[in-house]
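Subgroup meeting minutes
Present: P.N., E.W., G.H.
Scribe: E.W.

1. P.N. recapped why we're keeping a running log of single-chain structure predictions: easier to compare across weeks, and new members can see raw inputs and outputs side by side.
2. G.H. added today's entry (153 aa).
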Amino acid sequence: MAMRTNYYELAPKAMKILMAQEDYLATQFNTSATLTQGIWELVKLRVSQINQCAYCIDMHSKDLLHNGESVERIIGLNAWRDMPCYSDIEKAALAWSEHVTAAQSVDDNVYQRHVQQLGEQALLDLTLAVNAINSWNRVAKTFKPDVGSYKAR
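Output recorded in log:
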């Protein structure tokens, strides 16, 4: 198969914008009282599973393992609702992430329930994080970087 476009080389300004968003989110998740860096990584992996983005699934699985996440929780993420190893906050974050990724309407009841569980700032940051990983998934699925080439950070 022919190599596809290297999107970092072809559109460095656009990639800089996406990376600036990642920097913002890293700061928010590192300082949030509700959402942690670990939850952010779980969300990235779960959304990548939904979008069937092999490169991002590989990347975020490696990052989670590197950061001490258990194999059980990584493997069980696809069935998180029925797994007892996720906290209520993690479940709320995953539910919201799936809802937003599916582009479902957010009625007042769904919104209020998640604001009560997560808080307004965390819900906004989580929504931006879901938007970011959906964007990365679409770029990676289109331009197909080599799966397995990512080294955990």
